[in-house]
Design goal:
The strands form five sheets. A five-stranded mixed beta sheet has the order 2-1-3-11-12. By secondary structure, the protein is an alpha+beta fold. The termini are far apart. The protein has 20 helices and 16 strands. Helix 4 crosses helix 6. The chain folds into four domains: 1-34; 66-255, Penicillin binding protein transpeptidase fold; 292-347 and 452-480 and 490-589, DD-peptidase/beta-lactamase superfamily (Beta-lactamase, 3-Layer(aba) Sandwich); 352-448, Beta-lactamase. It has helices at residues 2-34, 78-88, 100-113, 123-132, 139-155, 158-168, 178-186, 195-202, 208-211, 217-233, 239-247, 264-278, 295-304, 357-365, 399-404, 409-418, 420-429, 453-464, 499-515, 568-582; strands at 49-53, 59-63, 286-291, 314-321, 327-331, 349-350, 373-376, 395-398, 450-451, 468-470, 475-480, 485-488, 493-495, 529-534, 540-547, 550-557.
Length: 589
């Protein structure tokens, strides 16, 4: 009886092991077959190829769309296709995912050279790694890779597998896929690449960080020439093609005369706004997007942030053309190359004294005169006892004097008299109070509630536009490849302030810059309308100002809401520096 049990136990072990292996393989097959690359959330890239232009038709950015796996009409350009096949997997069209000949040859070469000289992995195996696995050098991962490669060959045809590869391969400098590599290294769409440029990109595949032309141009060119030689020997290019490509000078993106803007956050915002306008219509395969950005101003604005210290503090700048609502500059960060947070649209911060324009506007609408007197003395509203920022109190002063000195007491007095609901309604008509809902608390009057730089700048832009508010836009028009118009900005304004009231508000703003807390923005001989703003502990430093038909807002602060040793005067000074540079106004040193 004991022997029978022992035999049964011995038989059960291999059955359990075999069942486990079968389950593992079936699970692997099911996972691979279920996987849908077009819906892969880790896949990056746009649904359409695009060229983004500045307001004066200078190129800001270009990017080809990823190759569509299920669309046989979306073909891979010939040279691109065979540059990777020739250099990475010569027998790609002959094997079934695993190439024993290549593995044997690679093993022999590696043993002979004494180091890993060739990989031996097919393009299909690389796709298996890119989409399902990682680069661990383990036996288990290799087994998985082989199984997945066989399944991929069963599920997709060769061109589809090659598209998966070209869409996802990492080619250095943050480029995932040949479309991004084309943009990053040459600032071109895929169809615009020369044979020489294609070969250089293909040469990056084995070790993009080592062969990067930004790190070692000589090594990158050496690899390019090896790819060209391989293509020639495999019969994909002629000797004349090869020699011409070898002689061609490599002009990297940063070397070109018409440099692109290296601000992916700005580009992403433009694309996001484009998607809203075309309603994600998949019929568009190529878009020519004319943005409202002034390229020269944008570069100037980005440089302005370098005058700011300490280096950890952040900066955002936005300029709006007041009578159209078109966004002419948008700086999202001091260093947009390494930062992925849009402080113009996503950062909701306490507005400080920039919000005071709302209760003062409400007072003027209610019939208050600029000369009317108010008490600027310490006082409490129930348990709320605010102080003036300067801790100076001026007793009985006029409305215009209280605004000039940025009194905290007077706007709260105004608000209590008029009613918080009217203040909130007026703020809403300015486009404020939707990112963070305004509540009926006295501190609202002095900017305790938050909003973003886009909305507060657009509110001041409306005052600069005779009390008429425009919907801000970073787009002027969108066209298809054949210049067919898809969407164009309509300039529709909404009147929110009476002209007489608006003129009085501008007097308040002009006085603030000439004689008050915003004096750091003053430019001799220029009428400037603006206001500084500071939140508790100098955590947020604002200046919003208008000159001629342009309203520009600046925010300075730490992302972690840390207190700052700077003041809103620093924001006003940077505003002045930016304005002086774009309008070519001489500034005293």
């Amino acid at each position: 009886m004991q022997k029978i049990k022992s035999k049964s136990f011995v038989l059960i072990i291999p059955i359990v092991i075999f069942s486990g292996i079968v389950f593992y393989i079936l699970n692997l097959i099911f996972t691979t077959l279920k996987f849908d690359p077009p819906k892969n959330k880790t896949s990056r890239g746009s649904k359409y190829s695009y060229v983004i232009l500045s307001s004066d038709n200078k190129v800001l950015s270009k990017l080809s769309r990823k190759f569509e796996i299920k669309d046989s009409q979306h073909k891979i350009p010939f040279f691109l296709k065979y540059s990777f096949i020739s250099s990475e997997d010569k027998r790609f069209f002959k094997h079934n995912g695993i190439d024993l000949k290549s593995i044997s040859r690679a093993l022999f070469q590696n043993i002979r050279s004494g180091y890993v000289k060739e990989g031996g992995s097919t393009i299909t195996q690389q796709v298996a790694r890119l989409l399902f696995l990682n680069n661990d050098l383990s036996f288990q991962r290799k087994i998985k890779e082989i199984f997945i490669s066989l399944i991929l060959e069963f599920r997709y045809d060769k061109n589809q597998i090659l598209k998966l590869y070209l869409n996802n391969i990492y080619l250095g400098s943050g480029a995932y896929g040949v479309n991004e590599a084309s943009k990053i290294y040459f600032g071109k769409l895929i169809d615009e690449l020369t044979l020489s440029e294609i070969a250089l990109i293909a040469g990056l595949a084995p070790a993009p960080s080592i062969y990067s032309p930004y790190q070692n141009i000589e090594l990158a060119i050496k690899n390019r020439n090896e790819v060209l030689e391989s293509m020639y020997l495999d019969g994909y290019i002629s000797l004349a093609n090869k020699n011409k490509a070898i002689k061609e000078k490599i002009n990297l993106n940063y070397q070109t005369a018409d440099n692109f803007l290296h601000d992916q956050l700005l580009i992403d915002f433009i694309l996001k706004e484009t998607d809203k306008r075309i309603e994600n219509n998949i019929d568009y395969k190529f878009l020519r997007i004319k943005s409202s950005i002034n390229k020269d101003w944008q570069k100037t604005a980005q440089k302005i942030s370098r005058y700011l210290g300490p280096k950890e503090i952040e900066f955002a700048l936005l300029s709006i053309e007041s009578n159209t609502g078109l966004i002419r500059t948008m700086v999202t960060s001091r260093n947009p190359l390494f930062n992925e947070y849009n402080r113009v649209t996503s950062s909701v911060r306490p507005l400080g004294s920039t919000f005071k324009i709302v209760p003062y506007a409400a007072a003027l609408i209610e019939g208050t005169k600029l000369s009317d007197k108010f008490e600027d003395v310490p006082r409490c509203w129930e348990s709320y006892c605010p102080k003036n920022f300067s801790e100076k109190y001026r007793g009985k002063i006029s409305l215009i004097e209280s605004f000039k000195s940025s009194s905290n007491i007077v706007p709260i007095s105004i608000t209590k008299k008029i009613g918080l609901k009217k203040i909130i309604n007026l703020a809403n008509s300015f486009g404020l109070g939707f990112n963070q809902e305004f509540k009926e608390f006295p501190s609202l009057a002095i900017g305790s509630y938050g909003d973003n730089l886009l909305n507060i700048t657009n509110a001041y832009s409306a005052i600069n536009n005779s009390g008429k508010i425009q919907s801000p836009s970073i787009l002027e028009k969108i066209e298809s490849f054949n210049n067919q118009s898809i969407w164009e900005k309509e300039f529709i304004s909404k009147k929110i302030l009476d002209l007489k009231v608006n003129k009085k508000i501008n007097k308040l703003l002009e006085k603030s810059v000439k004689e008050g807390t915003s004096k750091a923005a003053s430019i001799k001989g220029k009428k400037i309308y603006g206001k500084t703003g500071t939140s508790d502990g100098n955590k947020d430093l604002w200046f919003i100002g208008s000159l001629e038909n342009l309203t520009t807002g600046i925010w300075i602060g730490y992302d972690d809401n840390k207190e700052s040793e700077l003041s809103s005067g620093n924001a006003a000074y940077l505003w002045k520096k930016f304005i002086a540079e774009i309008y070519k106004i001489p500034m005293k040193k």
